[in-house]
Amino acid sequence: MNIDTHQHFWKLDRGDYDWLTPDLTPLYQDFLPQDLEPILAQHAVDGTIAVQAAATEAETEYLLSLADRFDWILGVVGWVDLAAPHACNSIARLAEHPKLVGLRPMIQDIPEDDWMLGAGLAPAIAAMVASDLTFDALVMPRHLENLDRFLGRYSALRVVVDHCAKPEIRHRQWEPWAADLAKIARHQNTFCKVSGLTTEAGDTWSDADLAPYLGQVAKVFGPQRLLFGSDWPVLNIASDYGDWHQLISSSATDILQGSTPQTMAQNAQKAYPRLRV
Asked: For the domain that residue 32 is a member of, what is the CATH number?
């Protein structure tokens, strides 16, 4: 199969997308399954994982309802307040749905960079492990040292790093991102989504701008722990689905160590064992 492990849906009148404001012109509209379906068909993508875009359980339930209606939505990465007293109950309830494959706290938006190290998260992490859910780490380079400590603390938890930890490509920043990402990859329970890089590079990006960052990700994680993700529709800010899919496909031999969207689909099933394929 060919699986896109990272895309979003939203319907503005749901009202819980706090970050989505009218100044984000390319994104400030509804993006629904019927908008994505023909794009997937054009690029021979068989299924997707829909990822949360709002910090509410209600949005997770909305995504799961879409997954009930569209068979090609193979899984959902949702949201739970992992630090809340009711977190374990929420995780158990949502995990009753067979298409919930993981949870994603919006770490990049949390003021405390060391939030993930709070002792109060331990019960929720244990509940995630018990339900065989994967932790999506929406982090930036400044979070990687703490993520390294987090991974050492919760070695039974599978973790997927979203968007290669968002390196600052437009500013040509390399370190400490490259060295810190290598530390993350030493934890064998981690995977990395090859996604979101054109957004970090800006709308004047070129293949040459992205190549070193793709190469570093492939070098430290290896071809067995890379996942293909589009980050649709956010990628529309600086690219489009076809350009990104083509770039990853054409980079397979010389940059991504043979990893193509098709081979990465096999990795998706390891990163998200609950995936409905």
From this structure: 3.20.20.140
Containing 153, the helix (H) or strand (E) segment is helix 144-153
Mean pLDDT of 170-196: 97
The structural domain count of the chain equals 1
Q: How far is CA 158 from the centre of its chain?
A: 13
Q: How much is the pTM?
A: 0.96
> What confidence tier does 104 reach under pLDDT thresholds 50, 70, 90?
very high
Is residue 85, in this structure, part of any structural domain at all?
A: yes
- The values of phi and psi at residue 84, to 5°, are -80, 150
Is 277 inside a domain boundary? no
Sign of CA dihedral 106, 111, 115, 120: negative
> What is the chain's alpha carbon radius of gyration, rounded to the nearest angstrom?
17
Residue 104: both structure tokens together: 């994603």
User: Which of 188-224 are b and which e, b meaning 16 or more Cβ less than 10 Å from the residue's Cβ?
Assistant: ebbbbbbbbbbbbbeeebeeebbeebbbbbbebbeee
Distances (CA, A) of 126 to 110, 116, 156, 193: 21, 14, 9, 24
31: helix, strand or coil: strand
Cα distance between the two ends of the chain:
8
Q: How confident is the model at residue 201 (pLDDT cuts 50, 70, 90)?
A: very high
**Closest to 248 in 3D by CA, of 195, 191, 172, 190:** 195
One-letter amino acid of 122: A
Which of 256, 121, 120 has its CA nearest to residue 193? 256
Note down the domain range covering 95: 3-271
